[in-house]
Design a protein that fits this description.
heterodimer, A: five-stranded antiparallel β-sheet, 32% helix, elongated, B: alpha+beta
């Protein structure tokens, strides 16, 4: 349940694909395009990936998370291409018997992804554009 | 010794290329492959301090050995999520 997509992310479909009767908790994290950064108004973002390596690293992270926490399943979808403010750039869903592990696993997943998965974003402002380098 | 070289994000903009084939016979390690492109595209020098390297989709070090058929990627610190 790991993918890179070039169209809007369908959170409900992933939720329905992951959830099972034995789950007692399902935690959803959405990264959202914010309309300002570094004091400038953001018009849109562009995400680019080294796709084969990004998929490999996402699979490795999902495996590490499943080993580290008593969760049942984790799904990760990252969107690429041009996104507008309020659109979802990344979706992480964790299912587990109990909520504490699901929250912790989801937090570790997004924090790790931001450090090691080869995806980059470029911010487009009213009067220019900048590649963002390094996690924020 | 042909290898495939990839540039991403700001590095692709600096070089104007996203991928290249290189006869890397003269390049023993990843850093020497980068040096070869930094001579061709001087704008790459500004990125050297923060540069990340990958060989065949795994992170590598500047002194990692380059082998026939490798896919070498150069890119800036990641900013996905």
């Amino acid at each position: 349940m790991i993918s890179l997509v070039h169209e809007p992310i369908d959170a409900v479909s992933l939720r329905n694909a992951l959830v099972m009767p034995e789950d007692g908790a399902l935690v959803v994290f959405e990264g959202v395009v914010r309309n300002q950064a570094r004091g400038r108004k953001v018009r849109e973002l562009q995400y680019e990936a080294y796709e084969p390596m990004a998929l490999k690293k996402l699979e490795e992270i999902a495996w590490q998370i499943r080993v580290a926490f008593p969760i049942r399943q984790i799904g990760i979808v990252h969107r690429l291409g041009r996104l507008l403010p309020a659109e979802c750039s990344i979706l992480i869903i964790v299912t587990a018997a109990h909520r504490a592990a699901a929250f912790d696993a989801c937090r570790m997943a997004i924090d790790t992804i931001k450090k090691v998965v080869p995806i980059w974003k470029k911010e487009f402002y009213e009067d220019g554009e900048v590649w963002v380098e390094g996690p924020e | 010794m042909p290898i495939r070289v990839l540039f991403f994000a700001s590095l692709a903009e600096v070089t104007g290329i996203r991928e290249a084939e290189l006869d890397a016979s003269a390049c023993s390690d990843v850093a020497s492959v980068f040096d070869r492109y930094a001579r061709e595209f001087p704008g790459l020098e500004a990125h050297r301090a923060s540069l990340l390297y990958a060989i065949n989709s795994d992170f590598a070090r500047p002194d990692s050995r380059v082998q026939d058929g490798d896919e070498i990627a150069f890119f800036p610190p990641v900013s996905g999520g």
